[in-house]
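Readers outside the structure-tokenisation community will struggle with the description of the input data as it stands. What matters is that the chain and its backbone geometry are given together, residue for residue. For illustration, here is how one protein appears when written out as sequence plus structure tokens:

…
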Amino acid sequence: MADNLEQLAKKVREVISDPAVHSKVDARVAEFDRLREKGSDEEWFSELCFCLMTANWTARGGISIQKTLGDGCLTLPQAKVEQVLADHGHRFARPRADYICKARKLPNLRSVIEAQGDDRRAREWLVEKVLGLGYKEASHFLRNTGHYDVAILDRHILGIMQEYALIQEIPKTITPKRYLEMEKTLEKLSAKLKTPLGILDFYIWYMRTGEILK
């Protein structure tokens, strides 16, 4: 595995050294840092809704719905939220609208997350308290609010890991134990590249998609 990890590290270094890609990643990271330091409670909740919507769907679609909903994430009746998702072609409009509306009952997200003092503990809290969030989605939310010590193991990242023989196959379902095992593999890559997991995700994702989204 060490040789495979080094091969992947070499490829990721090439992507990191691309000024255009690096600039786009820096811009995203600056957005997330601002959200962590100065973002409103409404902005944090909107980002949580984005992550609830992208589960088993697309980041681009989630961005589009997030913009359409705006403050409606917090204020619209559940039927209206569902309609917006359905109008955008979301595959799971009804359950996702239900998750979003149930999440409104959570305590102040920003305060609770920061009080955990650790990204991994914060992820455990999210998975336990937020219906519809697994490890991947919770990690995504944390990264997008400026917490970078977690890996977002979506199909693109797993595809690269399989391509470089860091995993034998992409699991159909991922248990928390298996998620943490695969995350540890990426931690080794993160250490090699001296790049936090949540930021490293951008570069690996770019290798698979040619895009920098969020």
